[in-house]
Every structure is written in structure tokens, then in C-alpha cells.
Amino acid sequence: MNDYMTPCPVCENKSHLSSMDMTPELVAEMAAQEPVSDYAGDKLVAKRLEVCKACPKLIGGMTCQDCGCFVQFRVRHKTAACINGKW
């Protein structure tokens, strides 16, 4: 198999997750249970989520089109940043 034909592990993972019927609510619940050593704080997390929810690049209320992350996880980390510089 040529390199260009090798399946992308990120895409494979997204396919697996989509088969699990992921919802924004389920992702938010999973994110809330994730231990975070650099937690951004409730106010900053809420502010970041509002920015993401208003962004046209948010897919299905949970996935960033540009970086592929579940935003509910990314916004919780103080050291994280929006790939588009929105927060």
C-alpha cells in the first residue's frame, strides 16, 4: 500500500466515534469527567464554549472543523488555544 493510500488514524478514530452516536451532551459529560491538571476555571470554560458555539466551523455542536478536537475537552485546558485565534 502506498503512503497516500494509508488510512488516516485521526479519520479512523472519528469514524469509530461517530459509530458510537456521539452527541454534544455525551461529549460534555465525558469532558467533565476528564482529570485536568491545568483547568481553566468555570468562567473561562463557559466563555470559550460560547465562542465555539457561535463559530461556523463547529460541526455537530462538538467538533472543530479546523483542528478536529472535541471543543468541550479543549476549552477546559488553561494552556489550550483556539487554532483560529478566537480565544
Q: What is the strand and helix layout of this fold?
A:
Blueprint: H1 9-18, H2 24-33, H3 42-54, E1 58-59, E2 63-64, H4 71-74
Antiparallel strand pairs: 1-2
Task: Please give a structural write-up.
This protein has 87 residues and is mainly alpha-helical. The chain contains four helices and two strands. It has helices spanning 9-18, 24-33, 42-54, 71-74; strands at 58-59, 63-64. A two-stranded antiparallel sheet has the order 1-2. Strand 1 and strand 2 (63-64) form a beta hairpin.
Fill in the keyword field for this structure.
single chain; 87 residues; mainly alpha; two-stranded antiparallel ribbon
Task: List the strand order in the largest sheet.
Answer: 1-2
Query: Any low-confidence stretches, pLDDT <50, length ≥5?
Result: none
Shape type = globular
Structural class: mainly alpha
Order of helices and strands: HHHEEH
Summarize the structure.
The chain has four helices and two strands; from the N terminus they run αααββα. The protein has 87 residues and is mostly helical. The chain has a two-stranded antiparallel sheet.
